């Protein structure tokens, strides 16, 4: 509506670079009946003005970029450019005539890249686009076109990243045929977009949310969440999981060599939101040239040609790593979702595990060549290099794959499965059903299965490596569930116990996360296994070593309580056995002798109850409550419960604070009832890990919570009336 003269007059002063005038022309040429032929040339004039700013934004340090201004993109948006482009793109969808208007691919491309550049540089544009649901769903329909696929994908990813409400994949028109039209490369890019739609929004800090808040949240959300609905939608797309498994397991050499080098560069460029990619590639080229020239100084003439042919290879590997990252992430989320069993079945059938096993040395845990491509401004070991992220993603997948599921035996090869059977026969115990029922045509092939490969790299990992945590978690999830002697022996034979003790004691590991994962793994490895305690004693053979081990346990009971629980349970079982070998280990093993002292068990019990409160319980520390219950259930079996409660009361008096432990414990147990007696709660984990029936857990809690002050097993009998503080209700503050 502003006159052309006025715009011209203000243009120089305001440094608008003619953008408003160009927009006015664009508006005139894009009326409903126009053929858009002029639009293209107008956009060609606007585009460079914006892309220069976007380049500046990406190459400058982000922080500096936020402070500097990007006048062109701002002007473009201010004069309605963004809305106009959205209107042009969506115009064909509004026209009902027989003859649909066709917008050329180039015009779509230009519109998308201008929108993307404006989103990058100008605050709030992405958010505004995200609020237009019709536009977001429309963008998905543009992905069917190969020529505009990448621009569309990049813009969608940006928009979904800021969208407040998660989109419903169900709403995307013809989703199944859209996915089936993608080639494998596009499917990987699509996985990157899917990641946002299937992950719960705050999973990052899951362990940190208090259980009170989570339980309240669950009461509010009765139906499945949007993420869960989206996961189900994906699983219903024919062939989707099969294609993901193929993508995850294809070798670098299988990638189609048809796409030209330049096209690959362009894609690569879009992937890395980083204008220094070329720079990095050239660095790789030079390094490889130097390497080949030092290796063959006589044939230095060949060095240049080898660089030319090698350059795309480095890129291919990097490309493949980035694709696999996205795919493994999606598979991992689906494995942890509601349809877990269905996903498990498919993943096994499509041989994901043997496929990853074959890629292990060449790609996943490949030797770090000097020429790893590193995103600008990061060093090779920081957690955002693609190589590192791929390893972590791979370990997370293994963890969710083997956690409490019998398919975990697919991580072994046939010889290793035979070894498990042999261990069972030798020990004269029945084979585990899951081992017998494992379909041998789906297990790993080659000299080693994935589990043994993982153990190998785990032992070589440098002390301060961030992978140690994930490696230990993955191996521990293989042992989780009902304790299997054969599984433990399989790992003990491969020196796992000594490796863990070396890390805890000799290298005096300091990282809390790594320590916790090692203690958990050690607990699963040693539980009820007399051979493991014998090996422990052989390794921890001096008082000095034993003291370091105890210091590590005591430095944080939240981290080590699962190990304390394992030792307590094992000791109880060994004491009830009349076997000469067991008796010998019981008398010699430092660890068992230490735990058999009543004062030690009481000290653990006192501290376990003292470090948690109902208001601060999380998924991570609730195990302390269950460990304290295990100690008391074993006491109840031996009819020692009153003695333990009286000792706790005396300990309170010694601390000059009567009632503070027992009142807290009373509240914790009432919370326990609310939490675990919920119909959705899975109690089999508690049963499997302790070999104590859930009924016995429930009974013990009821007895402890009895209001009868004359009962010798009721907590209230040990709190003086004056110090009684047990009737408060929990609230979710």
Automatic annotation (TrEMBL):
SUPFAM superfamilies: ARM repeat. Residues 288-308 are annotated as: Disordered. InterPro entries: ARM-type_fold (IPR016024), TRPC4AP (IPR022162). One of its GO terms (molecular function) is phosphatase binding. GO terms for cellular component: Cul4A-RING E3 ubiquitin ligase complex. Keywords: Receptor. The keyword Transcription does not apply. Pfam families: DUF3689. One of its GO terms (biological process) is ubiquitin-dependent protein catabolic process. This is Short transient receptor potential channel 4-associated protein. The lineage of its organism: Eukaryota, Metazoa, Chordata, Craniata, Vertebrata.
